[in-house]
Amino acid sequence: MEIESFDEFYLGTRATLLGQLTAMTADPEVAKEVLQEAYAQAWQRWSRVSRLDDPTAWVRTVAWRRSVSVFRRRMVADRFLRTVGRTRAEISPGSPLEEMLDVRAALRLLPDAHRRTLVLHDLCGLTMEQVADETGVSVGTVKSRLSRGRDALRAHLGSGYRSEDVIRFGEETT
Question: C-alpha 156: how far from its chain's center?
């Protein structure tokens, strides 16, 4: 019974969590890696995790914490690569790849707390109360982080950036 309930949980949440973590980390490979590790931890503790009010939030939080460690290691490696002069290949201006890289780069410049809050609220569709619960802060702090995070994204992307939908992930734009 325990195996079936975990399998059902995994199959029912994997795609959604992968999308959310990809946005939170701005790196699909890191998202896959940390989500796999979080699910492994959930499986090891399934008798306890399955009884939580929101096992999905538990997995997302574990994956997020692991991603912070990955990014710290990557920052050290990136500094080393810059030191030896390695550069990224040129990308044609205005391409979808360029836009994706612009947004990822802008998200990476945000403080972790602002990026996580933006993704949980605007992309995952959590209410401010749910974001506050998951991140362990007050609703007022969530509102502040949303406002500051959106302002910072606008500043990083520039006033002439093509679309506000980058700023408000979860809202339909016309």
Answer: 18
Supply 121's token pair. Answer: 């609220």
User: Taking the model in full, what pTM does it have?
Assistant: 0.54
- Residues near 123 by Cβ (< 8 Å), separated by ≥ 6? 19, 20, 23, 169, 170
The closest of 109, 89, 124 to 17, measured between CA atoms, is 124
Angle, CA 24 vertex, CA 59 and CA 140 arms, to 5°: 90
> What is the C-alpha to C-alpha distance for residues 67 and 44, in angstroms, rounded to an integer?
20
Residue owning tokens 């306890």: 48
What per-residue confidence (pLDDT) applies to 102? 76
pLDDT, tens digit (0-9, with 9 covering 90-100), for 6-37: 999 999 999 999 999 998 888 899 899 999 99
Q: Which residue has the higher pLDDT, 123 or 164?
A: 123
- C-beta atoms surrounding 130 within 10 Å: 16
What's the whole-number average pLDDT of the chain?
Answer: 80
CB atoms within 10 A of CB 36: 13
Instruction: Give me the helix-helix angle, 2-25 and 28-44, nearest 10°.
Output: 150
